[in-house]
Amino acid sequence: VFPGNCWAFRGHQGQVVIKLPVRVHLTAITVQHITKEDSPSGTVISAPKDIAVFVSLLGTSVDADREEETLLGMFTYNVEKEPKQTFLLKKMLLPRAFSHVKLLVKSNWGNPWYTCIYRVQVHGKMENQKASTKGQD
């Protein structure tokens, strides 16, 4: 993680859909930004603030062309805490694995021109992983 080496988008709102290499039963998501000390400007106002995480239910509805999403959680990335923050996701009513995760950044910490995310990690168990396996992300 180096200053300026981030996924940046214009303004204070943006979204990204992440395609996972395998289907995963999701449990948490980690978001990372740089620290104030690492920032050339001494600020981290480009860090995301309010974040929502969704999964796509594409192909599960009667109208297969219509994409439906389920909200797994809304979180606030706190620039006063550690740069790497993990947020637990809501448990699904039906145990199901997903191949796509959408990260929606609703606001940042004050930069009107752009928002930066340095790292996103998705945690969970792979769909075909045996239930006895513990501690693997």
UniProtKB/TrEMBL annotation:
PROSITE patterns: SUN (PS51469). The gene is Spag4. GO terms for molecular function: protein-membrane adaptor activity. This is SPAG4 protein. One of its GO terms (cellular component) is meiotic nuclear membrane microtubule tethering complex. It comes from Grantiella picta. Pfam families: Sad1_UNC (PF07738). InterPro entries: SUN1-5, SUN_dom. It is found in: Nucleus inner membrane. Residues 1-127 form the SUN domain. Gene3D superfamilies: Galactose-binding domain-like (2.60.120.260). Keywords: Membrane, Transmembrane, Transmembrane helix.
